[in-house]
Amino acid sequence: MQNAKVKFIGRTTDFSGKTLWEILGNLKDNGVGRLVQRHMFNRYPEPSYYRIIKVDALPLPSADDDKDFKRRHYYYYDKSLRKCRVWVEKVFRGRHYPDLIEIEAVSYKPDYRLIPRSEEAKLKAAVAATPPRQSIAPAAVPFPPLLRTIILDEMKQKGIELKSEPLLSLTEVLKQGRENIAKIEGDLSQSDDSSAKNLSS
Fold first, then answer.
1. Residue 41: which of 137, 123, 131 has the closest Cα?
2. Which residue(s) pair with 52 in the sheet?
3. Neighbours of 49 (CB within 10 A)
């Protein structure tokens, strides 16, 4: 008898592990003080982890609160995928975040792993030995082709003479966002000059 051919249908996923509540709900004090990792962190060479500070369990949604409960909530089909609200100290790619991070929206994803206590010291040592990452970006870049064409057409219609190639400034763009560590070339040289003056004084 030949083996039946199995065809999987649906969205693929890279998740590997348990939900955050599956892990923390089975630990003493809801795992406060323990370290957890997301499987997605393994794509980076630098170590990353969360240190649990506070945990709030969230109730399951009720069908009385939502007429389309069965259609809208995956909780109805799998009770293990419940969410929780967790405050953590985040270390991402070797960088400590200064403020606590709140995790709730992605807490149901089965992508978390508890770090055994025997591995915690090794992981923290790896973070301490990781040099800070640095990304240097130019102060300005050329506009995308279509946007450049639109800008040139508008300048031509207004009778504005083009003296140089229009450029898109990245100064304000790169200053936005908690995850952004990129520095502008000009800002970098200025910071180097100021640090050199401080050292000489």
1. 123
2. 88
3. 22
Per residue in 132-184, pLDDT (tens digit) is 877 788 888 888 999 999 988 998 898 888 888 888 888 777 766 666 677 77
Q: Which two tokens stand for residue 87?
A: 């405050």
Q: What local confidence, expressed as pLDDT, does residue 37 receive?
A: 94
Check: CB of residue 116 under 8 Å from CB of residue 33.
Answer: no
Give the pair of three-digit tokens for residue 94. Answer: 């070797």
Cα distance between residue 197 and residue 190, in whole Å: 11
Among the residues of 103-162, which ranges form H helices? 117-128, 145-157
Q: Which of 61-65, 105-109, 189-193 has the lowest mean pLDDT?
A: 189-193
Conformational region of residue 46, where left means phi above 0, alpha means psi within -120 to 50, and beta covers everything else: beta
106 pLDDT above the threshold of 80: yes
Collapse the DSSP code of 10 into the 3-class scheme (helix H, G, I; strand E, B; otherwise coil) and give the result. coil
Stated length of the chain: 201
pTM of the model: 0.67
Going 15 to 80 to 83 to 33, the CA torsion angle's sign is negative
Q: Is 90 helix (H, G, I), strand (E, B) or coil?
A: strand
Give the bridge partners for 168, in sequence order: 141
**Strand 135-137 to 167-169 pairing:** unpaired
* C-alpha count within 13 angstroms, C-beta hemisphere, residue 171: 6
